[in-house]
Amino acid sequence: MRRLACVVAAALALAANAHAQQNVPEPDGYRTDNYRAAVPATLAGVRVVTTAEAETIWRAGSGVFIDVLPRAPKPPNLPAGTVWRDTPRLNIPGSVWLPDTGYGKLAEATEAYLRRGLERASGGNKAALLVIYCQENCWMSWNAAKRVLSYGYRNVVWYPEGSEGWERANLPVAEATPEPRTEENGGK
Predict the structure, then answer these.
(1) 98 CB contacts (<8 Å, ≥6 apart)?
(2) HSE-up of residue 83 (Cα within 13 Å, Cβ side)
(3) Which of 92, 120, 127, 144 could form a disulfide with 102 if both were Cys (CB 3.0 to 4.6 A apart)?
């Protein structure tokens, strides 16, 4: 009986979250704060996919997955000689990780980094299938998908469940390394 109550409570929580997402309107511009909050169920001009649909694209190798989760910055006040290790990022295998490119406002160097990363990932093909994601309930992926669409890419997919939905489905993950930021592609 207790287990049934837990299952019912979990189902109600999931339903409430799904209902909350349906009620989040798409903003006219980009979201610039409170990035970890309920996201809209839609993004005009972009196809929204579930985990099952993202898995189908991934298994077929028919699209390029773009992870936009920010990279944790090195703390500025670490004592001299302290070894700094980034927290490992586990994402969808084969993804291109373009960290920090989902903020509502991007510095010129970050926007150039995003554009060049997309150019490399798509092979310069504006019709290439690009699947944009980060984490569940993360406006960064919504912003990035909207921005990618504004660059003229025509086959943009937004995967709002992101790496959390992927892991919840027990799908494989891989430790990610961010795409390098060189002077040629927009800074450090």
Answers:
(1) 66, 67, 68, 113, 114, 117, 118, 144, 178, 179
(2) 2
(3) 144
Residue 157 · residue 131 · CB < 8 Å: yes
What is the chain's length? Answer: 188
pLDDT, one tens digit per residue, over 65-123 is: 999 999 877 778 878 888 877 788 999 999 999 999 999 999 999 999 999 999 999 99
SS3 state at 92: coil
Residue 131: which of 67, 82, 56 has the closest Cα? Answer: 67
Residue type, 126: K
What are φ and ψ of residue 44, in 5° steps? -50, 130
Tokens of 86: 């980034």
